Amino acid sequence: MNRTVIAEMTWKQAQERMKEARAVILPLGSLEQHGYHMSVNTDNIVGEYMGRVLAERTDSVVLPVVPYGQVWSAKDFPATISLRERTFIEVVKDIVTSLENKGVRNVILFSSHWGNTAPVKIAARELLDEKGYRNVYYLSYMDLKRLGEGIMETELWNGSGFHAGEIETSIVLHIKPESVDMEKAVCEYPKAPGDVDIRPIPWITFCESGIFGDATKATAEKGKKFLENWIDTLVGLIETNIC
Ligand SMILES: [Zn+2]
Question: What is the CATH number of the domain that holds 181?
Answer without folding.
Answer: 3.40.50.10310
